[in-house]
Specification:
This protein is mainly β and about 300 residues long. The protein has one domain (about 5-10, about 25-290): Roll (Lipovitellin-phosvitin complex, beta-sheet shell regions), CATH 2.30.230. Helix content is about 5%, strand content about 55%. The chain contains four helices and 15 strands. The chain has helices spanning about 110-115, 120, 160-165, 230-235; strands at about 5-10, 25, 35-50, 60-75, 80-95, 100-105, 130-135, 140-145, 180, 185-190, 200-210, 215-230, 240-250, 255-270, 275-290. The strands form two sheets. Strands 1, 3, 4, 5, 6, 7, 8, 10, 11, 12, 13, 14 and 15 form a 13-stranded antiparallel beta sheet that branches. The protein has a two-stranded antiparallel sheet with strand order 2-9. A hairpin with a 4-residue loop joins strand 13 (about 240-250) and strand 14 (about 255-270).
């Protein structure tokens, strides 16, 4: 799902009975040093379930992506940076009803998984992709991510959405200023393109919750809104339950992400032929910086394929 986002920075001033000292200012600007390399483990899991409200029969589906990605600062100046991203290892897992398939680029796979999922992974492995960002890490351009014709966008490791939206925490903190005070909030709007359901807009509010030593903790809270399509409106489709939450740790000294988690839940209700239908989706994203690479022989391998 290709998302288009706009970021609006909003300063929220807390007012208490007595005057208090100014909140601590936190440096949220990324540090781009040409030649620097880091690796991250990124995991994305999407689960959905649809059924008639008065029926126990469900249609569960799930999709999981997990990969080790190398981030190298190819070039950097005062205006921003050119970041090289490389998928070094990838795991995919798909399940629909009783059917499931799994693929691991660092293991031996069965023939069906090799034929079905392998073509989605192998074109992306060890392929340098260049992302251009400004001095605050905001996305500008991506090149080198041309996808194999016919690959479904939802299963693509090379689709624009991956680099314009999903991996953006690897570029910067998301703040539209170089620093923010503890308690300060900025807002990001993500509006999905029109579909059979309609248009879903996600509002994410980021707040600097804490700053200690060289670590800043930013929390995420938000809402989902549905503009139903004509067909969905006729079925009286609406959001019945929703939640958006998350948090991430930003290294203010290194100017880089350390870990990230995001959770989104949505339950849709609609009526078809006099019966009420329900569809539930849950989406999670986690990212973790690998402090040491390659891992020591005595340490568990934090990478796809590790047992």
């Amino acid at each position: 799902m290709l998302l288009v986002s706009a970021s609006i920075r909003v300063c929220l001033a807390a007012v208490a009975g007595l005057a208090a000292p100014d909140p601590q200012s936190v440096d949220l600007k990324p540090r781009f040093t040409a030649g620097r390399e880091d690796r991250f483990i990124v995991e994305m899991i999407s689960k959905s379930d649809a059924k008639f409200v008065d029926s126990p029969v469900t249609r569960p589906e799930s999709y999981k992506q997990k990969f080790r990605i190398k981030r190298r600062i190819a070039e950097a100046d005062e205006g921003g940076a050119r970041i090289e991203l490389v998928y070094e290892a990838v795991e995919l897992a798909i399940a629909a009803g009783a059917k499931s398939l799994a693929y691991d680029s660092e293991s031996v796979n069965d023939s069906e998984s090799e034929l079905t999922l392998g073509p989605m992974v192998t074109p992306a492995l060890n392929k340098p992709i260049i992302v251009e960002v400004d001095s605050l890490g905001r996305f500008k351009k991506v090149t080198g991510n041309q996808n194999k014709p016919g690959t479904p966008p939802s299963l693509s490791l090379l689709g624009d959405e991956m680099f314009t939206q999903l991996l953006t925490p690897l570029y910067g903190s998301g703040c539209t200023a170089e620093s923010a005070k503890v308690g300060e909030t900025w807002t990001e709007l993500r509006r999905a393109p029109s579909s059979q359901t309609g248009v879903i807009t996600t509002t994410r509010n980021y707040t600097v919750a804490e700053a200690k030593d060289a670590a800043a903790t930013i929390t995420i809270a938000g809402t989902l809104a549905l503009e139903p399509s004509e067909k969905a409106a006729a079925a009286r489709m609406r959001i019945d339950e929703q939640s958006v939450s998350g948090r991430f740790s930003w290294d203010t000294r290194a100017g880089s992400l350390r870990d990230y988690s995001y959770n989104q839940h949505m339950k849709l209700l609609a009526e078809t032929d006099g019966k009420q239908r329900m569809a539930v989706t849950d989406y999670t994203v986690t990212m973790k910086w690998l402090e040491v690479w390659p891992p020591a022989a005595t340490d568990p391998k934090e990478q796809p394929g590790a047992k």
